[in-house]
Amino acid sequence: MRMMFSAFLICALSQNLLAQSDATAADAYATQVASATRRLLENDLLKTANVGIAVVEVESGRVIESYRGSQSVVPASILKVSTTATALAVLGSEYRFQTELCYTGGIVDGELRGDLVIVGGGDPSLGTDRPAGSLSLDSLLARWTRVLKAAGITKVLGNVIGDESALPGARPHDSWQWDDIGNYYGAGAGALMIHENYYSLRLQQSSKLGNRPIARGTEPSGIPLEWTVEVTSAAGNSGDQSYIFGAPGSYDRVIRGTIPVGKGIYRVKGALPDPALAAATWLRGALGEAGIEVVGDARAARDKVATVGTLDTYYSPKLGALAQVTNFRSVNLFAEAIYKALALRWDTGHDDDKTGEKLVEYWRDRGIASAGWAQVDGSGLASDNLITPLQLAQVLRKSVGYGLRETIPKVGEEGTVRGLLRGDDRAGRLRAKTGTLSRVRAMAGFATRPDGTELAFVIVANNFTEKGSDIRRAMGEWMGALVE
Hints:
By secondary structure, this protein is an alpha/beta fold. It is built from 10 helices and 21 strands. It has helices at 2-41, 79-90, 137-150, 178-181, 275-289, 319-329, 332-346, 352-364, 389-398, 468-482, and strands spanning 50-57, 63-67, 98-103, 106-108, 111-113, 116-119, 155-156, 160-163, 198-204, 214-219, 226-229, 232-234, 241-245, 252-260, 265-271, 293-294, 298-301, 309-315, 430-437, 440-448, 454-462. A hairpin with a 6-residue loop joins strand 13 and strand 14. Helix 2 packs antiparallel against helix 6. The model has no long low-confidence stretch (mean pLDDT 95).
């Protein structure tokens, strides 16, 4: 009996010592992170900024660090983490968008005696070449041309219609800035998107500083835009400092700012005014080039077209792959399309604010406090989005099982963080999504300590006056301290 008691006592003492050792190590690590946070906050770069930080253990949920972690901040593009995490949880990583090529009337003696209809299902990758498995615009149009030929159709007596009735109009959010919505990154999402909802304006460069380039049309062609060119020529190393202005649905465009001097063609990407009409226009043109005559016009339909048959169903890559492109490359359109997919699931339509309320409610039901969280779009482009660092860190933590981690790029290697901590051994234990708006820099992701403990972290700086690139580097150093 004495021997059994002694063995029990030794075991209990050992467990107690181990617990004390673990607690000591945890305290030491928390002190290490706190020191890194203090160094960051003492940096003159952030002297006048509003900074929020949260670090949470993924498995236990224990909060390692929280500096103003419960205060709302403007998140910029790290809000894409919230959007993609929710979609992966609600829709599943295997979810695919689908686009149908349908028709009205009937097929008689090689003639389609009705309309050819592209029925949009909200696919942001339609007619683009990312992610892997997507068809480029030319390949997609060639596929649909082959489908018509296989059906014996040599002539279309009706129109080619882009049916966007599931979500009419590719709408940017009402609060997006005027100097964003005419440019490719400010394109709105709807039921029928094509070529990532952008075109490229071809500008003939001038070799003289201050001169105006000349507009030479768009790629792909067929979009009847009217241009007022106010852009001028700047130094050869100045990069693209131009902005396209124009309302959705309007074909009048103004381009201002500067592009570099030169002698070639310089391309600037703009947002399509009407993607559903563009899809119909490009398909009609491709059919004509392939010898299939279309008697009618290209049109867009906001009301459901009553079709009688389906010629082709095109499926997008899986949501997991689309979410990875969204977070690796910070593609606003993909994030907005994923947000719209949630809207369709929740029946909130184009009411982005209501979709955000449902999203917040989803996570509140899973234990994340909702106070201070206001999401109004899927991409973070709106400056009136708000979330606390602790809320987003908890979303990261709770989404690991849904495959979110794999959609966040590796620091120093991939996506928008490939240049951060490059060549630093610490980078290999970090994944991070960046966020950038005027006066906003942010990072959110995962860190793995040398002992294998995984952390979810969020760091945001609002309202700074120093260079954003310097603040980004300072954040990188703070992230590196998490894995030392």
